[in-house]
Amino acid sequence: MATDKLAPQKDDHFTFGLWTVGNRGRDPFGDAVRDTLAPTTIVRELSKLGAYGITLHDNDLIPMEATSAERDRIVNEFRKALDEFGMVVPMVTVNLFYDPIFKDGAFTSSAPAVRRFAIDKAKRAIDLGQELGAHIFVVWGGREGAEVDGAKDPRDALAWYREGINTLTEHIRSRRYDMRIALEPKPNEPRGDIYLPTVGSMLSFIGTLDDAELVGVNPEIAHAKMAGLNPVHEIAQAIDQNKLFHIDLNDQRIARFDQDLRFGSDDIKGAFYIVKLLEDSGYDGPLHFDAHPYRTEDAEGVWEFARGSMRSYLGYREKVRQFHTDAEISGVLARIRELNETGPAVVDSSSLAYWRERGYAYEKLDQLVTELLLGLR
């Protein structure tokens, strides 16, 4: 029997968040359409589908006001499920955006008491991650922003943000945890304006930290596309600086609200080049699907969503392999290199006509890639 190339394996490192498959379909205009899924149920079902691991916000697993005894019971039950179904937790994050206490931000709140509360909450989430075996701690500053710039000096806000991250890296070092922090940028939503909205701004900010070595980024495809940016270029910048610690895979239509569409379901060519970049660069971290099933779906549709996310990535990966072995594509790439390398060595008055008139064969290359993705090659 032929092997299904699109059947996920554990070494593909596919992961989902409790909040992704567990999303109940609630949106700003409508209530939930699906029942709550227990974390242990999510672990079991994703394992059956071939996923490698599960990720979580602290409060996806443990209610914010749980007692110590309740917390320990929940964690023990979750760890038993992970062991039973052969799943791991590569990443945890912290919810610093949902509770009304964070209405003016967490690390960048104007209130010192709220900032201290946020830092302590993040420390506890790091401790939870250590307990579950996670090596990555993602920080998404969903409420780190402003609607009224007169209310706080953005320079102060960045200083408070820096103090928060510095405190977390010191916590990791002092506890000797094998963990790194990945900062997740987003250009807008839910605040009017978000501080550090792009990968580039996050990378610049990381350079100002006390322990920059311990901090990288977690780019999300949808977040880049919300601002009309090219996620391939955002991811490449992180790779170039050895700061791609984690990645969120999904899809998005440009300039829309945060849609969190199934990976590869909308921008087929864009998804192909994302997978090509990750595979060609040798990225070996978690491939994390941060998306939601459509609100139209019932419970079975949730698992179709998860299955489709992994199959799509594997399908694009197969197309990347075909790209590298396609004789005509290889020939066009060789021709492009030849044109670049055999032309005049300098641009001067005698070679201006050559450089002005020569073509680059990009139309041919782009059409061949399009045919590849359409299954015509």
Automatic annotation (TrEMBL):
This is Xylose isomerase. It comes from the Bacteria. Keywords: Carbohydrate metabolism, Cytoplasm, Isomerase, Metal-binding, Xylose metabolism. One of its GO terms (molecular function) is isomerase activity. Pfam families: AP_endonuc_2. It is found in: Cytoplasm. Residues 44-304 form the Xylose isomerase-like TIM barrel domain. The keyword Secreted does not apply. Its EC number is 5.3.1.5. PANTHER family: PTHR48408, XYLOSE ISOMERASE (PTHR48408:SF1). Gene3D superfamilies: Divalent-metal-dependent TIM barrel enzymes. It comes from Sulfobacillus thermotolerans. InterPro entries: Xyl_isomerase-like_sf, Xyl_isomerase-like_TIM-brl, XylA_actinobac, Xylose_isomerase. Homotetramer. It catalyses: alpha-D-xylose = alpha-D-xylulofuranose. Belongs to the xylose isomerase family.
